[in-house]
Amino acid sequence: MRRTAPTPAPALTALLARTGAAPAASASAAAALAAAALISLAACTPADTQAPPPPSGLTAQAGSAGSVHVMWRAAAAADGVTGYQVFQADRLVRELPAEKTMTDVTDLTPRTAYAFTVRAKDAAGNLSRPSAAAEVTTPAAKADDRQAPTAPPATTGRPEGPRTARLTWGAATDDTGVTAYDVYQGGVRIHTAGPGESATTVTGLRPDTVYTFTVRARDGADNSSPDGPAVDVTTPPADGDGPGTAPAEFAAAAAPGEVTLSWTAPDTGRPTAEYQLYVNEQPTTVIQFGAGASVPPPGGRVEHRLTVTEPAGTVWAVKVRARLPDGNWGAFSAERRITLGG
Predict the structure, then answer these.
(1) Burial of 10 from C-beta contacts in 10 A (0-12 / 13-18 / 19+)
(2) What is the pTM of this model?
């Protein structure tokens, strides 16, 4: 088989011209020069050997006799962190991606002191120095305790900027004592606070987003209370984002054979005729309103009824978002959980 010489790339052609070689040089000569050029370029790019700074703000909170919740501050974007390693003493117990800044370490021994550290890792594999250690002692086990704490009686929340929220809750009670308060968002535990705490700051949120938080109490036997009252927190848009785009005051009610949804239309600059409905985290349908007076104005109240055929007792988690004037979807409303009627 006859092989033809490859056509040199523009950069290689320039290199050949500078060295006095013709562009129609043999394939072997071109390959040799290309390899030399690549080696030269690689030599000009120093290897990344600089480790990121160690994580800060490390805390460790015993959630039960056999578990500890470890949490730290997220690295700055400029640090190039791609993951974290969590150590108990000198033993690696967790390896997490960069977006995770908390974890639960389980299978621990009751009434035992532990010390945890975290190291950051970048794309080149460089590891930071260990963070300052966080020390904690697990409580005594109460294996025969089967009674869960009461639910925290009240929850309040407010945004503290586009990416942060402050939550407070009322104290729960338990026959053997509350050992932790767990904060949930969308059914997922995102933070654990100590038994004597009644407030916490949640970070790493998205601007212009409605979050629904609940708090549960937990005792030393890992019995969890029911959810306390839910609270919605809407983070403001970041600088330059313009007005919020999330539908406000979202409500959902189930009746036999139907679900009624209602919300306040966001201020998108013009009446919004399309909303996307999510059920159990899946896009389900697009709700469209006709032209004219039926299109809800910005700030106006919207209502929509759905016919449902799912069996009574089915649980739905529902939320909506608006189609923006630029064609993109806006931020989600709060999420509501409903049980379908018969």
Answers:
(1) exposed
(2) 0.62
